[in-house]
Amino acid sequence: MTATFESQRAALADVVAIPVTPFAEDGSVDRATHRALLRRLLDGGIGTLTPGGNTGEFYALDPAERRLVTELTIEEAGGRAAILVGVGHDVPTAVASARHARDAGASMVMVHQPVHPYVSHGGWVDYHRAIARAVPELGVVPYLRNAQLPGARLAELADDCPNVVGVKYAVPDAARFAAFARDAGLDRFVWVAGLAEPYAPSYFSAGATGFTSGLVNVAPAVSLNMIEALRSGDYPAAMKVWEQIRRFEELRAAGGSANNVTVVKEALASLGLCRREVRPPSKPLPESERAEVAAIAAGWSI
User: Can you say how many angstroms the Cα of residue 15 is from the centroid of all Cα atoms in its chain?
Assistant: First the structure.
């Protein structure tokens, strides 16, 4: 019988949380704090978790640490959430990570955009095909940041790999997203707005049914309020949430998103939930800029 991946599809049509990876004073992954932050998300009503996402500093973790955060997330979730594990790097590394995720109990993998200066359209298909075919039991979600890739290439990939069930679309262009989704097959995939809450209203209007979030680490209820409004088609209510989170997301996006993770960890630190440290090439906020982040976090109903 052909797998339908219905539970995975449902999990993607939601707030797809990208948990941070907290570090201890010695620079290692802080396991106890990581578990506590995951419990906070789960208790806050979040049903989809992505260990190994960019907010989790995927590219700053070594292979053992990437496996660790996957295992900690699956163990802590205990079946309370769907797990979408970020994988990437070269094909053998991505395949090994995907198989590890499968064996640890995850139901999906998100394939990070290939890190290579020269990505051909056909090569993009080959890269994702190799990973998807290695784990046919898992739902596969390409993380798409390439504005040049045509939708027909995604359709080609899914023709070969029916476990490609969703797309994290992270090109900052709502019109391009609308066209790409229709060229690939609007109803064929679950479309996840990969640029989080700031882009969610415009992307939902064009066909997205889920969005990723780093902000959710700080205020799960805020993210849930937005998706509830979007699901009901109440765009004025969604934009009220957008206005509430606007400045926080502007701070994250400044300088080419240089402080994307930094601002989230700073907010968590201001609430006493984890240390503010990030790994290079990210950098903690200077003392002079911390108060604004703390004031925003304190103003939300946490």
Answer: 9
Note the pLDDT tens digit of each residue in 5-39: 999 999 999 999 999 999 999 999 999 999 999 99
Distance CA 59, CA 280 (A): 10
Query: What's CA 101's distance to the chain center, in Å?
Result: 16
Nearest-5° Cα angle at 213, 132 to 9 = 40
For the chain, what is the largest distance between any 2 Cα atoms, rounded to a whole number of angstroms?
59
Q: State the Cα angle at 214 between 29 and 31, rounded to 5°.
A: 20
- At residue 167, the 3 state secondary structure works out as strand
* Residue 24 to residue 104: CA distance in whole angstroms: 24
Name 17's bridge partners: 49, 213
Give, rounded to a whole angstrom, the gap between the first and last alpha carbons of the chain.
45
Tell me how far apart the alpha carbons of residues 170 and 36 are, in angstroms, rounded to a whole number. Answer: 29
Give me the sign of the Cα torsion angle 9, 230, 173, 259.
Answer: negative
- Determine phi and psi for 109, rounding to 5 degrees: -130, 145
> pTM for this one?
0.95
